[in-house]
Design a protein that fits this description.
281 residues, alpha+beta, eight-stranded mixed sheet, 9 helices, 44% helix
Length: 281
């Protein structure tokens, strides 16, 4: 069952009479079946209505997939024995979320919502073999940006990697409050954070937010982890994570690199700014 078919199942469920005690069970099991079928290898034809016939790729390398498949099949069989329409209505609602999560993973994306747990994956990717280059764009709108304990730990990861030879480049997008147009240097309350990165070997480039106001898509928080993945951070006004998305697809990496190149045209090296003002860190 495709994502479209799963969504069609949900639409039918919403439209069906509420007094029907049988259809919720049928639709819930159908949705779960669609979820499981969505996990199969496109080159392997799953037999209809037989979840255990679905073959997942990489089971020899990742036996956990086989365990997950077995557990899912068992759960489906148990759910099929339920008859209460309220229970099954709740199951359909939760399965929509499960489907969305699995579909996102199947498309090469890991999504974290309203949590800092993404930093564990961030650390794993940066420390994984073959990552010798890391580029990031940080949109600084608040002095609390990455100043909490999780943020400081992530910066420390950057320092550790830079010390061991990883090339790290960071573009900082500063609002005019932190870098007024008439000011030669950013404001002191943010400059110490910039100086700390600069002296630790991270290549810093700056751009004022107002200078790219006409290029709205360049206002972003992204990371490019070698040629392996990208990360996109979304924050609220208190600089708390609302969503973080890792994307391992080649197309997303290509688009992120293009955005990086465009944004670079508007930036200036922090080292050059310091030299122009006779300062050294």
């Amino acid at each position: 069952m495709s994502a479209g078919a799963v969504l069609a199942t949900i639409v039918v469920y919403v439209a069906m009479p509420a007094h029907d005690p049988v259809m919720p069970m049928v639709l819930a099991v159908g949705l779960l079946t669609g979820l499981a079928v969505g996990l199969r290898n496109d080159h392997v034809a799953a037999q209809p209505n037989t979840i255990e016939a679905i073959l997942l790729p990489n089971q020899e390398q990742w036996p956990e997939l086989g365990v997950a498949q077995k557990e899912l099949s068992t759960a489906l069989q148990r759910l099929a024995q339920q008859t209460d329409p309220i229970l099954l209505e709740s199951a359909v609602g939760r399965l929509v979320t499960i489907w969305e999560d699995v579909n996102s993973l199947a498309n090469g994306r890991i999504v974290f919502v309203a949590t800092e747990a993404w930093r564990t994956v961030y650390d794993q990717i940066l420390r994984s073999p073959g990552i010798d280059n890391y580029r990031s764009v940080a949109w600084i709108r608040n002095e609390d940006y990455w100043q909490d304990l999780p943020g400081q730990q992530s910066i420390q990861t950057n320092f550790d990697l830079a010390r061991h030879g990883t090339n790290i480049e960071r573009i900082l997008i500063l609002c005019d409050f932190f870098w007024p147009s008439a000011a030669a240097l950013p404001a002191a309350d943010i400059r110490h954070w910039i100086d700390d990165q600069h002296k630790r070997g991270i290549i810093i480039r700056l751009v004022r937010e107002s200078d790219i106001a006409a290029e709205a898509d360049l206002l972003c928080d992204i990371g490019i982890y070698g040629s392996r993945a990208t990360g996109t951070l979304e924050l609220d006004v208190q600089c708390r994570t609302t969503r973080f998305t890792f994307d391992f697809s080649p197309e997303c990496i290509r688009l992120a690199e293009e955005r990086w190149k465009r944004l670079s045209l508007f930036t200036i090296s922090y080292a050059d700014i310091l030299d122009r003002n006779g300062r050294h860190v």
